[in-house]
Amino acid sequence: MAAARSPLPPVSLPDLLFSGSPSRPRVWWRLPAPKCPRRPSTGIRTSAFYTEGAPAAVAPRKERAEPEADEIALLNERIRREHGRREAARAATPPMDAAEAEEYISMVKEQQQRGLQKLRGGDGEGKGIGGLGYRVDPYVLRPGDYVVHKKVGIGKFAAIKYDVPKDSSSGPIEYVFIEYADGMAKLPVKQASRVLYRYNLPNETKKPRALSKLNDPSTWERRRIKGKIAVQKMVVDLMELYLHRLKQKRPPYPENPAVAEFAAQFPYEPTPDQKQAFIDVEKDLTERETPMDRLICGDVGFGKTEVALRAIYCVVSAGKQAMVLAPTIVLAKQHFDVISERFSGYPHIKVGLLSRFQTKSQKEEYLSMIKKGRLDIIVGTHALLGNRVVYSNLGLLVVDEEQRFGVKQKEKIASFKTSVDVLTLSATPIPRTLYLALTGFRDARMEKAENCHGLEEVKEFLEQSFPNIAIAIAHGKQYSKQLEETMENFALGEIKILICTNIVESGLDIQNANTIIIQDVHQFGLAQLYQLRGRVGRADKEAFAYLFYPDKSLLSDQALERLAAVEEYGELGQGFHLAERDMGIRGFGNIFGEQQTGDIGNVGIDLFFEMLFESLSEVEEHRLASIPYKKVQLDIDITPHLPSEYINYLENPLKIINEAEKAAEKDMWSLMQFTDNLRRQYGKEPRSMEVLLKKLYTRRMAADLGISNIYASGKVVVMTTNMSKKVFKLMKESMASDIHRNCLTFSGSEIKAELLLELPREQLLNWIFQCLAELYAALPALVKY
């Protein structure tokens, strides 16, 4: 039999492969060798189409250059950049049905609203934490302060002066004069108080990248919309993170009468708030199937540890392990001592302490005991978060002063929150009303490294001054045994004066310490100062705290405010109020990550939070329901015909096309992976194959966007969708292309685009692909349930 003549004309793929039925072809065609050789790859089967007789030769394969970036490659890159982390988390989460999503969103919204009420304040003027308000009082502005006008943009306050209004005979009135990049603007004071926002919080000195232009409001408008979309994405990200947490399940712990016996050993009368904390934590553990993620915010000496002890007993008595995590070895040792004493009457419950100061053999023994479940309660520092620590049956994580851990440790702590119950203890946290409003945010404050310089010199001076008094040094760089002995002797009163770093900051309970002297107080944060001051006065003795600083004239405004705040909040029980004041001094920028801080810089703090509150209040209105891929109709009569050279070039063309369709049907990530593999193995596809891929991408994007039908009627493109008008508006605002954004309208259940002229079919497909890619960029800003 003769081989088919070459070259063959371009034909559609099924017609090319078979002249008989697909299952039993009567003739296999031998196609010409490819003109564009591909890169050799390991494990790829070499084959040849043949007629009856000897197999035909296959052309050698050569290296190919990397494919140039095209619309599909650019889309894949953008999706990975903007959707990657969220989609990875969603992939690990079982899917929710509409009823579940509704229930969880209601729970999230209720929690957020409690925080929002605190943040906004109850004085009717929108004033809350740190003086947070949506508007600025012009009379408190100082020359050079940056302000934001919602319609014009960022300017610099110059002065308040009297001026005569145009076309007025009423005499001069007060105007606010604002400097912009291209001129000076003035606003009546009454109007300014309604439309101006602060760019910074009081005492912040951050400068914007540039002042806005009066004659170019469109640039500011794009900047404002970009900030709005960024805020919406952040809110949805937090929403989905919390939904992911709520979706995790674990059996409720059994109600154990022995817990009451354990609680009866507490030697003090609980405060009302402490009693409520006991009740809330017990309900979290025994009545809910969702892992607990609760913050206990109590001041120094107010009994947070007792709340944790009861939770530990509940979990351990059910056969699970509990981990207690502290930021310093000194505090970890104190927790270990307290827990060991409290559980001394329960010999079957084993307590262990793991730290970086232990010998290698000690560590190996403890690691083995933890893995085999022979330790029930494990206390330690960040060493507990190492990869070598494998828990047999971890049920509870107790974190003391989470804000003092580093970024990597915080991320590790966060990873536990989806699988085990977590109880966080703090006396002076970042304002947790914000935590309630934005579940998932964590303190991003930078902690200063411990400074041991000069301790020996201080000791020598004090030994000369008090020759008969026992004096010692304590810092985190000492050996474990030495540090433990020093702290124990100080607690027992054998050491009278302790010279130390801020290693004693968190949670230490030294009953007979009644005086603390803090040097260079301006170098400490407000929460640190409050914690340090709380190390004394924990018994019935009158306590004294002396704070030393250099010449006040050399201190920054923020340092002066911190000193004033420490003086103002002098009573126990005011740690939470002081944390709120701390936010006003430090500014919100330190609370957020790098990306959100940049978004704040785009529009200023007040406008950012107005957008944030609006987005939180309306989050359920920004929901988008996808549809199955197979229900998407793309009514464009275009059938790509692959070149015979490319078909011969592929190993199994029909199989490859079927795999492409299956990948598109599964999800966008599968389609992207398929495309990457295809190009990696065979190089950049010809134009006809690109058209086929674009059809698959277009249907996949449409399915994810809730678009069920796409067709063209003359110059008008119509897309039938289930999205709401509000979702469409947000998507349209987020589009980077003016060409696509300006021609889109929404009516009923249809998105319409009127083009300048009727396009040929392939150009029409390209336009629809580009338009959907623009809309797809807004997906991270939408709740997809």
UniProtKB/TrEMBL annotation:
SMART domains listed in its UniProt record: CarD_TRCF, DEXDc, HELICc
UniProt domain Helicase C-terminal: residue ranges: 429-584
GO biological process: DNA repair
Entry keywords, A to Z: ATP-binding, DNA-binding, Helicase, Hydrolase, Nucleotide-binding
InterPro entries: CarD-like/TRCF_RID, CarD-like/TRCF_RID_sf, DEAD/DEAH_box_helicase_dom, Helicase_ATP-bd, Helicase_C-like, P-loop_NTPase, TRCF-like_C_D7, TRCF_C
SUPFAM superfamilies: CarD-like, P-loop containing nucleoside triphosphate hydrolases, TRCF domain-like
GO molecular function annotations of the record: ATP binding; DNA binding; helicase activity; hydrolase activity
Domain called Helicase ATP-binding: residue spans: 285-447
Key word Disulfide bond present: no
Highest rank taxon of the organism: Eukaryota
PROSITE patterns, sorted: HELICASE_ATP_BIND_1 (PS51192), HELICASE_CTER (PS51194)
Name of the protein this chain belongs to: Transcription-repair-coupling factor
Lineage: Eukaryota, Viridiplantae, Streptophyta, Embryophyta, Tracheophyta
